[in-house]
Amino acid sequence: KDCAVKIAVVGTGYVGLVTGTCLAESGNDVICVDNNEKKVQTLNEGRLPIYEPGLLELVQRNRKEARLSFTTDLQSAVRQSRLTFIAVGTPQSDDGDADLSAVWAVAKAIALALKDVPPGPPGSRVVVVKSTVPVGTNARVAQILAENGCPHVDAASNPEFLKEGAAIDDFMKPDRVVVGVRKPEVAEALRELYTPFLRTERPFLAMTPESSEMTKYVANAMLATKISFINEMANLCDKLSADINDVRRGIGHDQRIGFQFLFPGPGYGGSCFPKDIRAILGMGRKVGQPLGMMQAVDDVNEAQKQVLFQKVRAHFGDDLKGKTVAVWGLAFKPRTDDVREAPALVLIDSLLAHGAAVRVHDPEAMENVRATYGDKLIYCDQPYGTLEGADALAIVTEWQHFRTPDFEVMRRLLRTPVIFDGRNIYDQKVMDQFGFTYYAIGRGKRK
Ligand code: UDX
């Protein structure tokens, strides 16, 4: 216990909760802070406000072993801690830029908590920004600390690269850890903290806060670009009767290209890519640097979210009154209950607007969808339940159990055997064998 680092994590959203819990798991004393009393209460009762595989068990164990606690008292948590992580939300504001008001407020609150604490040597008190923030934010946080009586407190940047649904693994076995620091002592403090996670030759990369902040955006920009790229190619395949699955294989063996993150689909969603692409566009605008490619990535993605509906319309025509469509998968991707910017919602809106009845199923995200749509949709606990009397099935999220269903049962339940597959999870031959009319993304079989 002697060498345990005392850590405060402000913000118990997705990133804060995973960060705090994993840092407790590696032996540190972690206090997670949130100003939302209900959230803190939920966590103190040993329950989670979000769904993430493996997280509940870790939270419960570390609470029991007294390395992890939750509070609304920021001041006390920060005063006890050597490192304070800022992991509050940076939502997209109306003009598309990241809304940083929560970051500024927390930075100031930290300064006020620490201003009468006697200064120690460099690296003895560090504020670490985990939230995804535009380049220059860290410098501003340092300034806020200095202006509010804490010139002795250091600010560092430490972006996260966590994937929802695999966040624990991503934290425990990161491909790399990136930190942005101005002093070697601060780099050392963070290197020590992350050493338990870097056992397998994973690099710890220290750079300036600006480069570190930029790294996060460039990573997500590259990944989003891959998706919009393959989606554009898939749409062309559709028109030219080529099959993107074969094309994927054809290009992926070239090691400069590879196979990863090149799956066509109904467009990317979630809390990161859409927001971060718009934020990087905003950064470019502010400094007079046009980002034509990023604009195209965003435009292609917006259009891609309409592709499934266009296929429905091409099949059934404009008027969907009297038609019922089943939708499998509502979360923006499997293994999460997150429906932020989910392509399924865009499809559902179009279906409803054209008069269709919509029966939906998702193993985790139904409550989140019900919160917005109420009784406009029919919610089914089982995937097969959605098919009763439906004229077609649309698959929007590739949950594992959708991959090998009983096609015989599906055929029997559907009024007409039509499948719009937004994730290319079925084989055309099998579809033919069971007599389905099958539309996929970029498989070129039907227009
Ligand atoms: C992403 C980044 O991967 C992560 O490093 C960053 O920290 C946050 O943003 P996440 O939003 O959890 O993580 O989801 P991810 O698994 O990356 O998927 C994003 C979206 O892209 C999903 O909608 C997914 O369906 C879509 N996608 C992904 C594709 O359409 N095709 C692909 O090949 C890969």
TrEMBL record:
N-terminal signal peptide: none
Keywords: NAD, Oxidoreductase
Pathway membership: Nucleotide-sugar biosynthesis; UDP-alpha-D-glucuronate biosynthesis; UDP-alpha-D-glucuronate from UDP-alpha-D-glucose: step 1/1
Residue ranges annotated for the UDP-glucose/GDP-mannose dehydrogenase C-terminal domain, each copy included: 326-428
Residues bound to substrate: 161-164, 216, 261-265, 269, 333
SUPFAM superfamilies named in the record: 6-phosphogluconate dehydrogenase C-terminal domain-like, NAD(P)-binding Rossmann-fold domains, UDP-glucose/GDP-mannose dehydrogenase C-terminal domain
Sequence positions that bind NAD(+): 34, 39, 90, 132, 164, 275, 340
Enzyme Commission identifier(s): 1.1.1.22
Any Pfam family hit: UDPG_MGDP_dh
Domain of life: Bacteria
MF (Gene Ontology): NAD binding; UDP-glucose 6-dehydrogenase activity
Similarity section: Belongs to the UDP-glucose/GDP-mannose dehydrogenase family.
NCBIfam families listed in its UniProt record: NDP-sugDHase (TIGR03026)
Protein's name according to its UniProt entry: UDP-glucose 6-dehydrogenase
Native organism: Fimbriiglobus ruber
